[in-house]
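Thanks for the sequence, V.! I ran Major facilitator superfamily (MFS) profile domain-containing protein right away. Repeating your input here for the record:
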Amino acid sequence: MRIWCFVHKGRFFLKGFLKSLELRYILASTFAFFTSFFMIIPIVPKYVEYLGASEFVIGLVVGAFGITSVTSRPFIGEYVDRRGTKLIMFFGALISAFASAIYPWVENVAFLALVRVMHGVGLGAFTTSALTWIAKAAPDERKGEVIGGYGMVIMMAMAIGPSLGGFAYDIFGFKAAFSLAFLIGLFSALLTLCVSEKHIVLRSFGAKGAFREMLASKPVMLSALGIALLTSGYSSLTSFFPIFSERYGLCGFDVGLFFTMYALANIAIRMPAGKATDKFGEKAVATPFSLLAALSLLGISIVREKLFFYVLAASFGLGFGALYVSLLTFALRFSPRDIRGVVSAILTASFDLGLVLGSAALGALAELYGFKAMYAIASTALFSCALLTLIGMGGSKTLVIQVHA
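Predicted structure:
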């Protein structure tokens, strides 16, 4: 569908954006990128172990990409605000693809860690620039819906990628699995070349750095803190649920079904949650779904029946998906269009920091007090997020649509 763009009285409008070919290219590229990324998640630890590394070293190597993924984002955000998103998206996808291709040829653990660091740069570059394109090009009155769609394709990749990677590894081995991830990542990079930036507002080179400015922005920092609280609670599932579940008789298939239920619910809620934020405001979505996610984690510390675990997985997926969409939308809707690259960098970095710090803190708590207490404590992060959104977000929907060039 043709995209109609015009500027009238300082306002930026896009008609038919949700059906535009450009948005489809972005979403297809994002899906391919994250499918490639999630494919290698179950494979990399096995490959590091294959090279003879200890459990501690495996953890260091696997997590090495997070260092550059977080630290590179502020610089990437500043760059895309001034130069545009297309080049960074392309090179982010290309770097990640070639990192996947290099893995099976590395036989030294230290060098493998360097490849992970390189992969982290690619991840930070692509995710920051892709979200920035969405945030800058999407019409503000439908921004929640578009962000919901963006998050939905990531969750679809998360649902497919690990199984695809595990299947390729089981049947064909490391080299074939990593090679398939490379090809899918390369396809993602090629798709970015089809994206136009004609709707993207760039920041003046004479303007001051926006990073400090956004650190003082209430919507941005509230959303960043909320996302960190959300992902710290989520880390209790990704890091510890497989171990916790074994103690209550759940097998590997049961754990896989648990995360499948989570992923399906998360996918299903993204678009409706985005539409709800556009219609009713972010607070109307964020606060109740924060409570739903919190009660889900609290329930995991209490229930013992397999069926209830599946129900709680789905309810947490609903809570996570809706809350994440509303927090992203709150920050991006109420930030100047020309510095949304920096905003995207702060938000995506807070996602990673919540996972890293949450895993470390909850692991220590589990060792001291046990898993039941750990899940009860993890739920307090989401209860805190509910309180944060209740107090910090506006009471009604208010749209700010403006261009700061």
